[in-house]
Amino acid sequence: MNEFALQFAPKLAELKAAMEPERFWYPHGTINNIGNFGALLTGGSRDFGKLVGDRPVADIGAADGDMGFLLDALGFDVDIIDYGQTNRNCLWGAWRIKKSIGARLSIHDIDIDTAARLPRRYGLAMFLGILYHLKNPYGALETLARSAEHAIISTRVARVTTDRSTRLDNVPVAYLLSGDELTADPSNYWIFSAAGLRALLDRTGWDIVDWLHIGDTADSDPASSDRDERVFCLVRSRTFG
Fold it and tell me: CA nearest 219: which of 168, 183, 182?
């Protein structure tokens, strides 16, 4: 999968550049996350097809849908899910790519913050870099647990407060950002401690299968660009079925 992704990503980038100027597109390459999957997934979970099973895959918070288009090209049945009102180009980018390459995947305009259900039942949901953009992460993870058997989740975490006065490592808490505190982006809300993220997953119906820290794993804080830490985790739902 990683080798295919390395070939697919530059071709997709060339296609985007031919369609619209750079400012039109989401600025971060979501396919880059594939490199972290190799470090995250262990044992039988490394067999991606077995992990998905005979159900579809959801790419949630998909931006331009890069990850979804990659999985579609690999032969998976894929739904892209994002919210047009907060998507960088109102999902027009994903629709244009779908038409251009003839992808089979479906595109859904859904606010995961308020959704009571998702379009289908999934073997695996990609939930990458979206959790701290949600006002209601607790409710969203509960909805996801009813709709997906497995999920790969990534989110920013913090070990100290922004003034560096308080350690958060082992405290199950979340830090509420001010509107311009993190990259001057008011869509950023909650930065969890690692203990807080574990507690949140447990309370919303998920068992942790694999867990990975990347970035500043000593003194990460909620807002500094040079003290960014991310958790990647594979989780299995207790409420799916």
Answer: 168
Within 10 Å of residue 8's Cβ, how many Cβ atoms? 18
53: tokens are 């099973």
Reported as a single tens digit per residue, the pLDDT across 113-130 is: 999 999 999 999 999 999
Distance, in Å, from the CA atom of 16 to the CA atom of 29, rounded to the nearest integer, reads 12
The 10s digit of each residue's pLDDT in 112-171 is 999 999 999 999 999 999 999 999 999 999 999 999 999 999 999 999 999 999 999 999
């619209």: which residue's tokens?
20
* Gap between the Cα atoms of 115 and 118, Å rounded: 7
Q: Is 93 exposed, middle or buried (0-12, 13-18, 19+ CB in 10 A)?
A: buried
DSSP reduced 3-state for 116: coil
Q: CB–CB of 49/68 below 8 Å?
A: no
CATH code for the domain in which residue 52 is found: 3.40.50.150
Give the residue numbers spanning the domain of 80: 2-237
pTM, two decimals, is 0.96
> Is the CB of residue 237 less than 8 Å from the CB of residue 152?
no
Cα pseudo-dihedral 131, 136, 138, 143, rounded to 10: -90
Q: How many domains is the chain partitioned into structurally?
A: 1
> How many Cβ atoms from other residues are within 10 Å of residue 15's Cβ?
14
Q: How far is residue 174's CA from residue 197's CA, in Å, rounded to a whole number? A: 8
